[in-house]
Amino acid sequence: MYSRNELGANVKKARQKRAARSGEDFSQKNLAVKIGETVKWVKKLERGEFYPDWDALNFIADVCGVDLEILIGEKFKDEVDYQDAVKGGEVSRTLDDNVLTI
After folding, report:
1. What string of pLDDT tens digits covers the 102 residues of the chain?
2. Euclidean distance between the first and final Cα of the chain, in Å?
């Protein structure tokens, strides 16, 4: 995954690419409104001040019309890898019912 600064730069590029494709300005305010966040939140993200959660990243990618892989700099091999990333990986083990008894 990219650093916070690289992620922020990629979000800005994705926003600018959407503007170029549509031929209309797509400002930080436009992005904020579309994803249900504040302009301040978008500005901080583009400055690389934090990592947003997966849901926000997915929403940004969708709104900007880019793949999530472009934003985060990580190539997902298939749908299973993507779901693992979103859900935090596979279950490491399962418990038998007898393990849960006191």
Report:
1. 778 999 999 999 999 999 999 899 999 999 999 999 999 999 999 999 999 998 999 999 999 999 888 888 877 665 545 555 555 444 444 445 554 454
2. 42
Domain spanning 4-87: CATH 1.10.260.40 = yes
Supply φ then ψ for residue 59, to 5 degrees: -65, -45
Q: Where are the domains of the chain?
A: 4-87
Which helix (H) or strand (E) segment holds residue 69: the answer is helix 68-72
Alpha-carbon span 27 to 50, nearest angstrom: 20
Distance CA 102, CA 93 (A): 20
